[in-house]
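During the no-cost extension, the postdoctoral fellow (Dr. R.K.) reprocessed legacy sequence entries with the updated structure-token encoder. One reprocessed record is reproduced below for audit purposes.
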Amino acid sequence: MAISETPPVAARVAFYAVIGCWWIFALTFWLRKRPPRAREAKRDWASLAGLFLQAIAYFCVWFYPLQRGHLSPVASGSQVLEWGLAMLIVAIAVASVWLVNAAARRLGKQWALAARLVEGHTLIQDGPYRFVRNPIYLGMFGMLVATGLAAGRWVPLLVAIALFIPGTYIRIRSEERLLRQAFGPEFEAYTRKVPALIPGIY
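Re-encoded structure tokens follow.
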């Protein structure tokens, strides 16, 4: 079946809803209340390699974001399926933004791009950290998936996921090396109770 040049309404709704979620995602960090600057105790710059892979993954799904048709070749013949997928995409994006926002607020002065410890660093285990040890990365992954689905570009999305996963793994390992050194048995007990990223998987 030929894909029409003008994306159907469901695809447009999903796409612009994801764009709106990206604005909220960005504002979470740009406009958040800055806590008093904490003195850095230790930093692991290796985590920036993971950040670089994550950035390339996002580039993959954003490279041709406006050249989209139906959300899925499977759903292209059914408005019910199109709207069902559109609502799923919006739900993933909204949940991801909420997760990132809640986790960033809970981290406060301890949040940083590169893995680090600050003076007085605490091991946070409440809020979204009760469910996964890295809720911000889970939210970032959700936004990646929602964006790729909304753009309707399946091959770039698969490539992006293949880059994002090792990038996230590098960042998690880098951060957890610091936490393990700082908190020892307390952190080990936390890792046994709470998954790193996706419950039941990792």
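The first helix runs from residue 9 to 30. Strands lie at 40-44, 115-118. The remaining legacy entries will be reprocessed before the final report is submitted.
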